[in-house]
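Tip: read the tokens left to right.
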């Protein structure tokens, strides 16, 4: 083997490593965009209930859920107050029933379990979840494990400065939901 061949060998090996790393980065970025940034959103004409998931400091989800109910999308609004004791159940116009709750555990899984129990009690066949895009995929998975009816997801806006945290948290929580929480 010539000396020139030995010099090229590490270079070829290095190029392959770079290509694999770039491929992994591209797959990660495309997956992140699809799962958390541009997750599909539904627009149901009607549902049995609208559920606003918690973890929303600006309460945009809660406000969106109430507006949807006022527009006639569902007669019941279910609002997760999350773990923040300062968040209170909103006042709504007459004709709209509001159910507020604090999930146990205080996460999307606890919310999904509560939704499943309520759906059984009220005989719901469909729910519309109001959440952020970063939580959309995980919320669908967890709620579908606890509720056999149709699950629609409507996303509320998220401030630009929350995106980095929400994406990082979203990846960890999605992996946890897929690997650890296999049942309702």
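Filled-in amino acids:
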């Amino acid at each position: 083997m010539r000396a020139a061949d030995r010099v090229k060998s590490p270079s070829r090996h290095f190029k392959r490593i770079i290509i694999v790393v770039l491929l992994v980065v591209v797959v990660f970025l495309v997956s992140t965009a699809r799962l958390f940034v541009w997750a599909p959103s539904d627009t149901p004409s009607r549902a049995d209930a609208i559920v606003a998931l918690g973890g929303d400091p600006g309460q945009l989800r809660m406000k969106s859920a109430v507006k949807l109910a006022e527009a006639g999308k569902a007669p019941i609004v279910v609002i997760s107050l999350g773990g923040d004791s300062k968040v209170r159940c909103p006042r709504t116009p007459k004709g709209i029933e509001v159910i507020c709750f604090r999930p146990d555990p205080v996460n999307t899984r606890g919310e999904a379990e509560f939704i499943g129990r309520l759906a059984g009690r009220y005989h719901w066949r469909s729910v519309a979840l109001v959440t952020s895009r970063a939580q959309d995929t995980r919320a669908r998975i967890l709620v579908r494990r606890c509720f056999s009816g149709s699950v629609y997801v409507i996303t509320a806006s998220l401030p630009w400065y929350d995106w980095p945290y929400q994406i990082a948290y979203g990846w960890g929580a999605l992996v946890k939901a897929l690997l650890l929480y296999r049942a309702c």
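The longest strand covers residues 126-132. Residues 3-37 form the longest helix (35 residues).
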